[in-house]
Amino acid sequence: MPLPFLTADRTFEAGSEVPLPYDDRDRWRRPYRPGPWRVGGAALGLLLSSFVLFAAVAIALTGSVSAAGVVLAVALVVIAAALRLLRMGVWVSALGLRQVGFLATRTVRWSRVVSVRTVQQPVRWVGLPRTVQGQALVAVRKDRAPEDTPPLLTTHGLDFLSRPAAFDRAADAVEAWAAEFVRR
User: Fold this and answer.
1) How would you classify residue 127: left for phi > 0, otherwise alpha for psi between -120 and 50, otherwise beta?
2) Residue range 78-132, pLDDT digits in tens
3) Closest Cα partner for 141 from 167, 166, 90, 107?
């Protein structure tokens, strides 16, 4: 018995009643994949949390339930931090542009954006205070001066460190979204 959904020899026949995931322009999406440094950092955080969870079970079995609860809370905080690290980045939709940080999220409607462009400027290296010369994707807004707006993406961030081609593709994708929705 052939399994047609597993074979690549026939075309997918999607009816008009089945919307494909990339057709929904109102859904928030990251137009690029997270970089290896971000994924690796989150994986290390989740690995650490597994050890902390194991410690919580061991502490609970020895009889100290309150101490196990504290260790469990620490593990949950580490898991939440790792998941938030994976969620960080620039997200776009037909509604606007969203920059998700570790502690805060900023959303700007396309009606408030004048343009999105790539500029050569000093950028922070992996989010640390040290700056190096690199490229940044910035959104010029109607209500703020360009120097008051933090860059959306940089060539030396966790997603694009040592991957300039990936930065160019991501910047082009965000600029394409801006070109489509800023003029409306």
Assistant:
1) left
2) 999 999 999 999 999 999 999 999 999 999 999 999 999 999 999 999 888 898 9
3) 107
CA 90 vs. chain centroid, Å, equals: 6
CA–CA separation, 184 vs 95, rounded Å?
11
| Residue 34: DSSP 8-state | P
Closest CA to 53 of 41, 29, 70, 39: 70
**At CA 135, angle to CA 132 and CA 140, rounded to 5?**
120
Taking the C-alpha atoms of residue 76 and residue 104, their distance in angstroms, rounded to an integer, is 19
0.70 cut: is pTM over it?
Answer: yes
Structure tokens at 138: 């910035």
Consecutive H or E run containing 149? none
